[in-house]
Design goal:
Number of domains: 2
Radius of gyration: 31 Å
Strand order of the largest sheet: 1-2
Number of helices: 3
Shape: elongated
GO molecular function, one term: ATP binding
InterPro entries: Kinase-like_dom_sf
Helix content: 40-55%
Protein name: Protein kinase domain-containing protein
Order of helices and strands: HHHEE
Oligomer: single chain
Keywords: ATP-binding, Kinase, Membrane, Nucleotide-binding, Serine/threonine-protein kinase, Transferase, Transmembrane, Transmembrane helix
Strand content: 5-15%
Amino acid sequence: MLLWFRMVGLVLALVVMTTISLLCYLKWKNQSRGRSKGSQDACVPDWIKEKEHELPFFSFSSIEIATDHFSDANKLGHGGFGPVYKHKLEALSGADSQL
């Protein structure tokens, strides 16, 4: 008789744990689906939406002049996308402090 109560208790505990886990998973899945249906712009702050974000365009020849034809004297190092060079601001017309 004691063995029977243990078996029933174990099965009942497994059923309850499985049910709770399934309900938590379904709730999480429903919440994540609701977020993806909404507008993606809802997460973007207004101050970012108002500004125009245009990157400056530099021609290859202007970059070549600014880096003194990619000389080794201007090479700062090597990154994941290739060599990194310092530049002269005067060579880039209308440039900010970034290249």
